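REQUEST ID: PR-0412
SUBMITTED BY: lab tech R.K.
PRIORITY: routine
TASK: structure prediction, single protein chain
INPUT:
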Amino acid sequence: MKLNDYAQNLTVRIGTIQVVAFVLLAILGVRLYYLQIVQGQYYSERAENQRIRLIPIPAPRGAIFDRNGKILVDSRPTYNVVLSNEPIKKIDVTERVDDYAFGLSLEPEFVVERLDLIKKQPEFEAMVLKENATMQDISWVESHSLEFPELRIELQPQRFYPHGLNLAHVLGYVGEISPKQLESEEWNSKGLRPGDIIGKGGLEQYYDEFLRGRPGYRKVIVDSRGRVQSEIEVVPPQAGQDLVSTIDLDIQMAAEQQLAASTTKRGTIIAMDPNNGEILAMASAPSFDPNIFVQGSKTPEGRKQIAAYWQDETRPLFNRAIQGRYPPGSTWKIPESVGALQQGVITVKNSNLMCGGGIQIGNKFTRCMGSHGSPPLSYAITHSCDGYYYRLALKMKIEGLIEMIETFGYDKRSGIDLPNEKVSQTPKSWKSIIEKREGRWSDIRTVYASIGQDTVVVTPISMLRAVASIGVHGNMYTPHFLKEFKPISAMGDESSPSFFPFREGFQFQRPEPKVVKMTPEQEDLVVRGMWAVVNGGGTGGRIRIPYFEIAGKTGTAQVAELGKDVGDKKDHAWFVSFAPAFKPEIAVIALIENVGFGGSHAAPAAKAVYESYMATKGIVPPADSQEAAPKTSANNGPVD
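STATUS: complete
OUTPUT:
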């Protein structure tokens, strides 16, 4: 009986085991079906990704040339130490800090900074830990490849600025895109990722989209430690487009040399073709070396130099040509003269106004530097008669000055193709503030504004654009550096997803110039006054060039009260001009900070630029034509 019961229990147990086994096998089968059939593609790709890596190949940026094909910026290959993201995901990276710092001669703080960045940016596939690796660095990385598989050596393009300090403000520099920039829609929409190199200033920034190439990649097989075992495919990068600029390097170097030789070594010189707005030279001093930002941003010495640039009181990173705002002094009289003629305040036939040696406004007497009687407009321009312009501005009234400001675009940016251009500040921008603060706009402020002081500070580029237009029948062209972008060939197979299409070349799309309306007689009157500044006994007579007549205007802009105008409070020196006077090919403006008279400092600097231009055009005055410049008599006014 017991045996029979045991047999029956055994049958039940076996059945139960069979049912449980079937259920377990069914669950296992369903799970296997889910993993291999439903999720098969996902896990297959995940396994493949753990075995296959895409290593980016950075694209070289387009080169930048001057108008004659001379190289201004290029990229050159350099060995970099690159840190891969995947191998360090499963380790405590803080343990690597001292090893990296010691082995690669890096600051521990910098290594921490880079490791923190790669942890916060999971999109990083790799990032540069050290640029310009030495043979010692390369040997250290290779000898520690088993210990630190996340490190490797790669040959990558690096931006190089062969002219160093020269042209730095025009060209700008490049650097890694910042996390803050990546958060902005402007950059995020361009498909950029952490570690990408972008332009940061100058033409590098303004035309970054075209200069920046499109990176390729290497598809490689790696082992469990992330080390490359073999290469499957290489997709080459597409280089950026080459930019041909309007810069003439010879003229640029002449401008740079004049600033370097100036007394304070602070200022700016710009040369432009007034017939189309092409910038031939733009120098700003003091300057900086953009190579420091490219090659030194990851070294202790480089970071120290970059910090010194930012802390320097002379502001070497500041482009004085488009960001500096200075009282223009007597150079302001040229657009003011045109404005008065346009508004009918004076006429070509009847332009005489009294000088009076100055003017009395209330209990304040504002002097002129000479006693010029009752001169016509051309004489007032030539000899820079302040008394004339005091009375001219009062006749125009503040409303007339504001109309002139709007006519010549001083209330707007010039539109130059550089980032961060500033807008001039004039009585138009100050009027409402002054009226609110003082109750009214007073005549004395109009008097001060008439000679480019007090409520008038302008950018050199806006002054050059305005005055240059007078020599070309009032056509105010947009100043620009772009001449053309060269085309780039397509890369890869059109049927491949990694195909890079052909990038078309293009030239600068020049907008129609703003036209300052003048009659031929009005234009001739003003230009003849400017011609005589240099060629007819005026304030710029010392820079006369026979057979290449310059029309110009000097300016000496006060930056402090009389008696306190010494040292770094000394007057700014200006000279704005174009030549040949009656058919201009080139316009030049020079501003030298805190040196004194414009005729003594800025005008000679501009002359050197003209002589450089003449040399490039093969213009050589006859040897026997070097006549002495006419002298200015003592009662003709200041040498400003």
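NOTES: The chain has 21 helices and 21 strands.
REVIEWED BY: pending
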